[in-house]
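New to this. Look over this protein:
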Amino acid sequence: MDEFQEILQDFLVESFELIEQLDQDLVELENTPEDLELLNGIFRVAHTVKGASSFLNFDVLTHLTHHMEDVLNKARHGELILVPDIMDVVLESIDLMKALLETIRDTSADAGVDVADCVIKLDAITKGQVPESIESPVVVEEVLVEPEPELDYNSMDDAAVEDEIQRLLSERQAQDKAKRKAKIDAGETVLAAPSIKKEPSVEPDYDNMDDNEIEAEIQRLLNDRQNEDKAKRKAKIDAGETVLVAPSIVEEVVVTPAPKPTPESLPTPKPTPVVVKKKEEEQAAAPTKRAPAAVEQTIRVDVKRLDHLMNLIGELVLAKNRLIKINDDVEERYEGEEFLEELNQVVSIVSLVTTDLQIAVMKTRMLPIGKVFNKFPRMIRDLSRELKKNIELEISGEETELDKSIVEEIGDPLVHIIRNSCDHGIETPDIRAGQGKNEAGTICLKAYNEGNQIVIQIDDDGKGLDATMLKEKSLEKGIITDKEADNMSNKEAFSLIFKPGFSTAAAVTSVSGRGVGMDVVKTNIEKLNGIIDMDSEVGVGTSMKLKIPLTLAIIQALLVGVQEEYYAIPLASVLETVRISKEEIYTVEGRSVMRLREEVLSLVHIGDIFEVERILDSAEYAYVVVLGLGTSKLGLIVDTLVGQEEIVIKSLGDYLKGIEGIAGATIRGDGGVTLIVDVVALMQMARDVKSTAMISETVGESSSNTKDKASDYTVMIVDDSKTDRTIMIKALDPLGVTLVEATDGQEALNILKAGDYNFDGMLIDIEMPRMDGYTLAGEIKKYNKYKNLPLIAVTSRTGKSDRMRGVESGMVEYITKPYSADYLASVVQRNINLKSEFLS
């Protein structure tokens, strides 16, 4: 990167930081035009950007900011007041400044943005001419002295006080001389100011003055200033000029502040204890406002470095979980050994330091949500004028911090929600007045932490949502059916506004009416693993809560088991876990449900959603994970609850990404891979699961599976040789049992999973293509339903190691070829418990 590019990057970073707060500051200034400190800050931004852009030869940006600076400078000197129509032009120039900076960032040049019209408007305001949208110019008397920042005189020594007074006098004399000369050149009559001429010759002995005398001297000098101003105003009035007074400017000069004084009330006020206290508080707070140290103690770091550091921390967390798991295994194996205590201490320290490091790195990526909130005062102000409504915005909790990636994503949803509140929620002033409400509607935007989540709450005191009207609109648009509308609660009806294509607007406008805004909100919030909770009351208002995780990289999750597989469910979506008996599960219209307190909860097995073969044993209880997403709830049946764990979210990669219901993967403490459930997609998939075979049904089937004849017994023969299968079939034919054939282990496993047969035993060859007998036996034993299924090896392998391996894999008998037909039949009869009376 060459030197110019380095300077350009610094310029862009600094400029974007400076203008970030401008929209909010300008809207605040419009409401409090007397706030000179705020006005000076806005002026400094324009001045800084102008100077830097001029140095870098960005002529368009320099041209625009120069005219902005002229308008703001006149406002600083009290020569105009930033009324709404003038503020419209200033805000337009800020938007153009942002557009120019973005163009410079993308192209390293400021061409392509037309600022001519805006510059003409700014120039007209500066010259006192009336732009089209302004009915009459607002001009006030030129104030001779720009207010200076208030100094802490109490903390100054005598020499510093004397120097400051001398500086003020010299500055005042120079200003007066320049203005008198300008008036003389213009042919105006100039009154002499003898008091100014005499002051340089008066040298009070400040060294011998006490504090009260110094304060009185300062007050005297200020009074002289006021008298001179009055004299000059009188001269202008005598000359027939129009003079308007800007009392707030004079107020800044007065030592003891008073609320909104008039020019007649400006004689020297007597200090009171209350005023002195306010003065001391202001002086104590002043250094805090001006302290530059915080800026000097920060450095700019490339976001890619932080992302890389976050990835390394993620790997460290995985290693920590692995270390804790190994430590638990070692404790169990070497219980009572002396080294365990020392090992535990080391593991605890590593775990603690890793957690602290993780928190520290996460904090480096945290940004205050105020960076998002800052743009809303401007948006509310523009919408208020566009919709002709009086809307006030109240913001709190803007210091609440979120991960940078979430801060970048949360802006658009909030824009849609607030625009929706302004257009559909807040009524017009005449309607509000007729309902006995304040003519100005209020939108409250606040953020706060709640556990491992941040909650962003948007409240308005508008007309609220009418559940009946929402249902009718949805029926008209075909979004819901009549049956769904009848069974829908009010809270569920409120959620209809998030449906694609839904809108209650009578006509399409630039603000709303297309039915896409709130759908975008729902999609984006769910993408962040967040949920939306709404409540509303007709005539009172609407409250919407967005609950979002603090970070998307490392989350708390509940690990659940299904057979030999594990899934991680984000803890933010888990409302509770319950253990219920089989008798508590009911079937309604082909769907499994349970009663949870006073609520009927739909149930679905996670194995049915992800098409995992679900083989249940005769356990008396089922585990149900109650998931919540907004107003929706679902009971997810799982085989086991493993526990809560901190997991690092890993992408599935290009090949596996896009699997419905899966958000990613993580690595468990034992080194295995766990899939992370996408709760939003899972709840959608659960609606398509027509029926769920529940525990009571499965157990009922197994217990009622009585054998009345030999053909009720079923045996599978697994061998890749047609000849060997034929020999086994002829050997077992006298038993009269049902026989099923499979040509290899993979086919046999598929037949088992299909569940078309209830097998009582299996004859398995060892040497087979695709899947051998040992592997097949191991896979079969993973299923609880077949843990006690007799597996009989029929093979030509006679080695001791082969027999041992067969036993280890789950074989109950080991028959070597060749064998007699009677021997094979007797082994099968004994293992499947075939009753002798069934033999023909």
Observations:
- The CA atoms of residues 321 and 645 lie 9 Å apart.
